[in-house]
Specification:
Distance between the termini: 16 Å
CATH superfamily of the domain at 79-199 and 213-248: Vaccinia Virus protein VP39
CATH architecture of the domain at 79-199 and 213-248: 3-Layer(aba) Sandwich
Number of strands: 13
CATH class of the domain at 79-199 and 213-248: Alpha Beta
Number of helices: 7
Order of helices and strands: EEHEEHHEHEHEEHEEEHEE
Amino acid sequence: MSGAPDVTTRPVPQQGAVRHGRDTGADGTAPTATTYDDNTWTADPYADALRTGRGPLFLRRADGWLLLLEVERWCADPDAADLEVLRRCEGSVLDVGCGPGRLVVELGARGCPVLGIDVSEAAVSRTIGLGGQALQRSVFEPLPAEGRWGTVLLIDGNIGIGGDPAALLARTAQLLALGGLLIAETVNDPSVDERVDVHVTDARGATGSSFPWARLGTPALLRHAHRTGWHATAQWTTNGRSFVALRSRGGGMEGNTGH
């Protein structure tokens, strides 16, 4: 990949129903259209937690199961697991679901061309306020420099975006340059492979509306990756967090150029 992509911002589209695909094949054929509503991540419990940098905040399933969201970690400086991810990044980096921007800001400080995207206005505002570049946009909407990113990050559970890992992997392949790198964080439990409807909720019981989400352990991600034209180049665990590095088949870049 030659040079940094143009990440000049455009007018932010209205948030709402976002069309994306399912059952995308490795041949890149167009998937069947479906929709999900990403306004849930702009709801007050999530936005308030990012503004204050404090939880508790949860994803809540219909059966009452709760997943604690690590707001304080997201709003802190990158930890050892984050720094290992950043060391493996190549070329320009697109951080999908960048949240409050810790990875965007750290990569920018290292001189790496980087852009964060998030559907949450509070997340984008915090990232920009810390000196990072970010856009309020869904990964399934048009994005700057499509097909020219060196690395795409799906960290902090963001492989779950849209509740359809195959569709998200197919979309990521469209964003990357030939031979580009996807680094995804997985659930640190190899048995997990679920698609669920969840709400964002806080300790007071305030909730947003329901939206689809996915949770994948590493074996499940590798199965989806194999079916959608990716191959794994690395797997690792740091500080109890698990990660996979993937390239689309036919990509010729091997090794990594850390920042």
